[in-house]
Design brief:
Elements lengths: L2 H23 L2 H8 L5 H13 L2 E7 L5 H8 L18 E6 L4 E6 L2 H7 L3 E2 L3 E2 H5 L1 H11 L3 H4 L6 E4 L5 H4 L9 E8 L7 E5 L8 H13 L2 E7 L6 H10 L8 E6 L7 H14 L16 E2 L2 H11 L6 H7 L4 H5 L4 H13 L2 H102 L2 H25 L4 H19 L4 H7 L9 H9 L1 H6 L2 H10 L4 H99 L3
Helix pairs in contact: 1-3, 1-17, 3-17, 4-13, 17-18, 17-19, 17-24, 18-21, 18-23, 18-24, 21-24, 23-24
């Protein structure tokens, strides 16, 4: 196959890959995922532009002090200390190294918004990042050098082009302007990076969240990554988290792991093996296929490599070099710090066929983005399920309360109905019992009167019959009524009300018995019962004139007539007393007792309102559950749709032979 056909194939692959990227970025799920911080559409646009411009980006990452800058000084700057090797948390800056036939550097300072945001970064222990790492240096610069932040930090970012040899004043610990620098571009005339961009990141443990975010963005955007571990602290949970989160966008074959500063430990092979085993067995990373196909962690000493390079090129050693010459084993220096093996690996796995690697980067980004979208949608679905379950629990609680209220109201009604039945029975007993006693008293009066009439002559009977009747009624009936023992009646009524109250108190709603139900025991007034007798004269005297004439004209029948009239009057007296008793019972006893029922029914009416409120609440909760179910169904459809798109994209990428 000739070179022209290869170029045409590459162009076709690139166009098909860009088409897949374009379809992905137009997914409805992308916008929602971006608003929730899951996906960055600007980053996708950057990846698309990188593919179009065929940018090959290699990021160098690792913890601060892992020796990134020393390594780059060796393999890119041929041993010159262009990048500072004494990076600290506050001075390390992101540096991009690019090819240009005219060597120079471009400085990018913080703008005003970023500078102000730096001042708000809080560290552990309530310490302020800016005060801890910037304040003292800024005061020194202002006092000794007359350099003020306001002269450099502007609303619109200030930039400056300088000679590479002047970089020290902008990126080293001693630099006067280092604190104000956000990132740097270095352009060098080195053919080995002619179509490559190298990004030197500040460090994974960077507290500067503004600089750290830019570092993470560049790593995600990279085509390949070289990750360094410090031999003194080979691997930590932070490293695992970083690889899992940020290197997921990088093809596993385009990641090279390096164990640097092996000159600081005795048995670097054991440390190398320790890192390899942990990466392969890590629960978070084992599905990534990292360190597959006979890949390994490359142990190096950047410092030994620099000493070897200077020795071979007869470059004078400085005091720092002389110090390390006395510390590092000569065999490691003579072996070029094992840097050669790393360079071979970089050329083999990263630099060869860079065009294909750029396309593979795009393919990996598509795969990772789809996986993140599906995972994101599953997480949303899971959250919806949990919220739906919570609403079901709300409904269960509402149903429980509804059942309790209904059961209580039913029990109260039953108690109330039973109580009313007992009231009626008790009042009938009271009426019947008193009527029997009253009848006994009337019968005794009747017997005494009739005996008296029998013993009297006609004239005396006619003259004194009404007076004798009045006398006997007052003596027998009134006396008995006045001395009638009402405790039995009162006791029965009291027991009835106490029973009623006791049943109410057993109900779950204490307010019904404690707050609203009051025992209104009626006062049984005997005076009420004898009021009919107080006016007995009027009843009898109405007959006096009629009886007088009648009795004298009908002498033979006089005693019989008197007895009949006495019977009539006693019947009327008995009826009036019973009527008065019934009136009293109805007005003062039954009504008072049934007042309890009325008061209870008023309270039950308020519980009917509560019942209605709970029913409405349940209805709303049911509607919410239905809404959640609809959203879950929608989420299922979205997941199904994304999986379909994902599988289709994987199939097309497989046809392109990119991953």
């Amino acid at each position: 196959m000739n070179r022209q056909n290869l170029a045409e194939q590459y162009k076709e692959k690139k166009e098909r890959l860009l088409s897949l990227m374009d379809k992905m970025i137009k997914l409805d799920s992308i916008d929602k995922a971006e608003s929730d911080g899951i996906i960055d559409k600007n980053q996708i646009d950057d990846i698309i532009n990188d593919i179009k411009q065929e940018k090959f980006i290699i990021s160098i990452c690792g913890q601060i002090k892992s020796g990134k800058s020393t390594l780059l000084n060796n393999i890119i700057f041929e041993g010159r200390k262009i990048l500072p090797v004494d990076d600290t948390v506050c001075t390390a800056s992101l540096t991009r190294i690019k090819y240009n036939n005219r060597p120079y550097a471009k400085i990018y300072f913080y703008n005003s918004e970023e500078w102000n945001n730096l001042k708000n970064i809080q560290l552990d222990g309530n310490k302020n990042y800016f005060n801890e790492h910037f304040r003292k240096k800024l005061n020194t610069l202002a006092m000794k050098e007359g350099i003020q932040a306001k002269e450099i930090i502007k609303d619109e970012r200030k930039t400056k082009e300088i000679k590479i040899d002047d970089l020290k004043n902008y990126i080293s610990k001693e630099g006067d302007y280092t604190l104000f620098v956000k990132y740097v571009d270095i352009f060098i005339n080195n053919k080995t990076i002619e179509d490559v961009q190298i990004v030197d990141t500040p460090g994974l443990n960077d507290y500067n969240i503004i600089r750290s975010q830019k570092t993470h963005d560049w790593i995600k955007r990279s085509t390949a990554v070289i990750m360094l571990f410090y031999a003194g602290q080979p691997i930590s949970q932070n490293d695992f988290n970083f690889i899992d989160k940020y290197l997921s966008y990088i093809d596993s074959d385009k990641i090279i792991f390096v164990l640097n500063k092996i000159d600081t430990i005795d048995d670097y092979e054991s440390v190398k093996n320790y890192i390899e085993v942990n990466i392969k067995k890590s629960e978070e990373l084992r599905d990534r296929g990292l360190l597959g196909n006979d890949r390994e962690v490359y142990p190096i000493s950047s410092m030994a490599a620099n000493l070897s390079l200077k020795s071979n090129q007869n470059i004078p050693f400085d005091n720092n070099d002389k110090f390390y010459l006395s510390k590092i084993d000569n065999s490691l220096i003579n072996n070029d710090g094992r840097i050669h093996q790393l360079i071979v690996a970089i050329n083999k796995y990263i630099m060869n066929n860079k065009g294909q690697a750029i396309l593979e980067k795009g393919a990996q980004y598509i795969i990772t983005t789809y996986e993140k979208l599906i995972k994101y949608k599953k997480k949303i679905r899971l959250r919806l399920e949990e919220e739906k379950k919570d609403k079901y629990k709300d409904i269960e609680q509402i149903d429980k309360k509804l059942n309790n209220i209904n059961a209580t109201m039913k029990n109260i009604k039953n108690i109330d109905n039973n109580f009313n039945d007992k009231i009626n029975k008790e009042t009938r007993k009271i009426k019947n019992g008193f009527s029997e006693i009253l009848q006994h008293w009337i019968d005794e009066v009747n017997k005494d009167i009739k005996r008296w009439i029998k013993d009297q002559d006609i004239e005396e009977a006619i003259k004194l019959a009404l007076r004798e009747l009045k006398k006997q009624v007052k003596r027998k009936i009134t006396y008995n009524i006045e001395n009638f023992n009402t405790r039995e009646i009162e006791g029965r009524i009291e027991d009835l009300v106490k029973e009623y109250q006791g049943k109410l108190k057993n109900e779950s709603y204490n307010s019904l018995s404690a707050k609203y139900i009051k025992c209104l025991l009626p006062e049984v007034s005997i005076n009420k019962l004898i009021e009919p007798i107080k006016n007995i004269d009027t009843g009898l005297n109405n007959y006096r004139s009629r009886l007088w004439g009648f009795l004298w004209t009908q002498k033979k029948k006089t005693k019989v007539n008197i007895k009949e009239k006495v019977d009539d009057e006693l019947d009327k007296i008995q009826q009036r007393i019973e009527n008065q008793l019934n009136l009293y019972i109805n007005n003062h006893l039954i009504n008072n007792l049934k007042g309890l029922s009325k008061e209870l029914n008023d309270e039950l009416s308020s519980y009917k309102k509560i019942l209605e409120e709970f029913r409405n609440k349940k209805k709303k909760s049911v509607n919410i559950v239905d809404d959640y179910q609809a959203k879950i169904k929608e989420a299922d459809n979205n997941i199904k749709y994304l999986k379909k798109k994902y599988n289709k994209a994987k199939k097309e990428l497989s046809e392109l032979n990119l991953n």
